Amino acid sequence: MRRLPVYMLVDVSGSMIGEPIESVKSGLQMLVSALRKEPQAIEMAYLSVITFSSQAKQIVPLTDLASFQLPEITANGCTELGEALELLCTCRDKEIVKTTKEVKGDYSPLVFIMTDGIPTSDPSEGITRFRAKKWGVAVSCAAGPDADKRVLEQITPECVIELASTDPSSFAAYFKWVSASIVTTSKGINVSGADADGLAQLPPPPPEIKLV
Amino acid sequence: MGPLKKISVAIKRGLSRLLHRNESESVKADDIVKRSVEPDVAAHPPAAIEELGGVRIEERGSSVDEQQAKDVPIPVLPSRIRLSPNLTLGKEPCYIEYFLTGDIQLDQEEYLSNTWQARQVEKGIRIVPKAAGELDIPIYYNNGACVHFELTVNPDIDSLWQKNEPGPNLIAFDQDLIRLKTGHKNILARDFQDFQLIGASRRGRSHEHAGAFRDDELGYWADEATGRYAFFVADGAGSARFAREGARIAIRYLEDKIGSNVTEALWNIADNGDTPGGEVGKMLVALAYHAMCQIDAFVKESNTEDPNRKWSLKDFNTTLLIAAIKRDEDGAVRVVSFSIGDGATVGYTGDRVEIMIAPDIGECCGGTRFLTMPSVWKKASEDWTEFYRARVFSAHFTPAEAKKLWLLLMTDGVSDPWFETESGLANLERWRNFVDMELLGHGDGQAGLDSSSKAETNAERLWRWLGFSMATHYDDRTLVAACPFGEGAAIGETTVRHGTNDILTGGNDL
Q: Which one of A107, A144, B171, B324 has the fewest beta carbons within 10 angstroms of its own beta carbon?
């Protein structure tokens, strides 16, 4: 069975304490609930959540939508984005099934990265490793005015989006768009039989989200 | 007997035993265990959903009296408890039981709401969801505590899949001519002396849900007197607006032209060793090329008729599989195949799998080539040998093999779920399972093809079977099969059917 793997990278550094992290939690929950209404997403989409602050942790391994449960998330610490990218690549190597002569593997994974600040230590190694791999769709989101857009442009040059603020409605719009993107991608894959090939297929972002 | 066995035995004995559980069958309170119960559902249709299997969670806790006796402060129950795993409507497990060991009880026997129900079981609670969603279930205990149980309930996925008709936007966009030619169902059925031809083509879940058209097509030609036959299958590209018309034009053209072009004389010219398929193979290539030209002519004609259309050959992208067959007087069978695109053309005799296709799948998934791609034909001019080698195959079956031969052409909507990869296609075991179980088996979801039934009956069975449900496999399904039902078939009966149901009347979708 060919799965559509989706990795969510979420900044849980100290600056997210309070309303922002609550918005992220409810946003993730809303994302999962929305996907659960689409039969194609339910059967194909597998979701993983990697959080990063002073450390990167895969708090939910690649899991089918029906079984998915979001654990507690607390915000604290700095912003090790580079480590998150390295962890993402490690998880990908471990979890993604490759196509071989015997078996048709997973579709190229989708990645949605979100941060509200500046990486604490140099993320270059993580970025290099990330860019060396093939992703179906890779999107970075700069949450709020303090986020480092230039770093994100190095990670996902094809698509960086920006939330004007870190208020709840902006986060809600972001997660809603991510959910629509996943559904559109899963439907597109079924039509063409091919991997998601970049962003031409994604729905247009709502007004709260600006393309950078 | 372990506790798990006790519970499943209890269920097997009858539903009433579950309601009146006696002491000897209750689970030992000391055990902290999470279990899933799998009852024998077929034997005991459930009177209530909760009588099917569930999940049982036990936690150590203590009663008010125990605490007071030990002179220990009364523990506070957590105000929220997240239950695990998530449940799915229509699937086992369908309830969760949560136990606190000791004497803590619910403050009432039963709780009811629109979306869930809960009741006291032994010394715990059984929660049965009735609707999908994120459930928040407040339960009161007799020590005054209120616990909110959080439970995620997934919807029954079959209830989410819809069957929709193409909407007015799709039909108005089209020309009437195209709309009326396409139906959601097409069937081939013909009884021959030595074999039975059946074929069926239907929409997959993706097109049904989206309210789109069937993009696959099938066809055949036969002249039993000279032992010449031909089968065709085409898979219109999902991304091409009029893909189904491309598939249809190609196949109708081939049905019309193949008889007068792949003649007996052509079959009689012996293969030379280097080019398997010989003259017949070359003729199939020529016919495919002309089929492409037919589509191109239709595009140009349509654009002339209405310059606003601006249609292109790409809008009609389709794959194409052809199998030309010659049955010799001694009963031997020769097959020459041609293909552009994915899918499968295979001869199966029970002992041998003859793969007659090298599917175009490009470097990574999704590099399918199409009949209508000029680059494919350009390649034919640039490197004819390579083109021919990749697209024309030839096979020979002895009279004994021919008696057991299944010749099948299918689109990837059938080959992907059942064979997955090229090596899957070459796997004899998979074929045994596919033919003996899926096609000939009479079990649930199997086609039940029967050598003593007429072609039309078997074709309907095939069509029904093609509706098989398999997660992530939503493509249109098409299969043409020459079945070795010669001896048992109703000889002398020839029923030919090209069923194209008008979609406006809803078709015969089952």
A: B171
